[in-house]
Predict the structure.
Amino acid sequence: MSDVFLTRRQILAQRIETTYGTYSDPNPASSYQAIRLVDPFVGDFGQNMVEVSGGTLSRGRTRPIATVRPAGVTFRTYVHGITSPASGIIYSATAKPPLGDLFRACGMQETLETVGYAGGRYRYQQTADPSSDNSISILCHEDGFDHQLRGCRGNVNFIYLNATPVIAEFNLRGIIGTEAATVRAAPTNMPTIVPPRWIGSGSVLVESLHAVVANANFQTGNTVYEQPASIADSSAGIIQCVITDRVPGGSMDPEVTNASTLDFFNQWRATSGAILQLQTNVTTGNRFTLTASQMIIKTLARGDASGLRIFNTDFEAYERNVDDAFNLIFD
């Protein structure tokens, strides 16, 4: 019988890098490194080529020459916190949100806040400049074969859907390294907590007013430049992935309300900034809130949800001061 390879036999693990582009060797058996996936990851392991087709007195072509090797991976996982310990201390330097390092690879800085807040909480907010950006190494294992990526940076899209857990969809780009057949055991120390559903305890606030929303998404909107260069330490032809621009924003479908209650049209016409807050759960340790301090509605159209009138809106999150277009808090 011939060999059989299955799409679901995968392992995905990540680890923060202390030096950019130096493979940090993610271990699927270590806490906070193996990633629990919603569905199989999709790898993009490319190979550019140049053709050699002239001077052979032939209508055919000779063997092409390999050049740049672009690489990346896309995957989805649920967003959640940690189980509240008996001591009452929730978050600490060693107890952090499971997706924290992935957020850091998407242009966010991580801050543990304990002063004036009992139990500790983690805040993720945009970094100041490229020198502040973090990177991760990723192990993509697919049914007996490893693809190792280093220097990875990219984007995350938070998907809010009524009555379901919030999904974080990551699209990360990196520098391809070792690719080889490898035997691996099943990952251990993966999160076991049930991710909270976006229902009841969750709320959408626009200008301190509740909006009835069934679907929403928020994405970091980073532009990732895979910087090409022909140097000795980059056989992939790429020396680094740099976040050069960012346009955070998303979309939502609020139910149409009276203008006296929540005037979406006036918000849109006036381009006046509104505070957008997306909260999920109320249980300490497994609660997270995404806030955009100056949300601007960019497009507004009436839509239909089985006869119910809704607004189809696209919005962008702008900075009110510096590097504060949005923040994500786990507490």
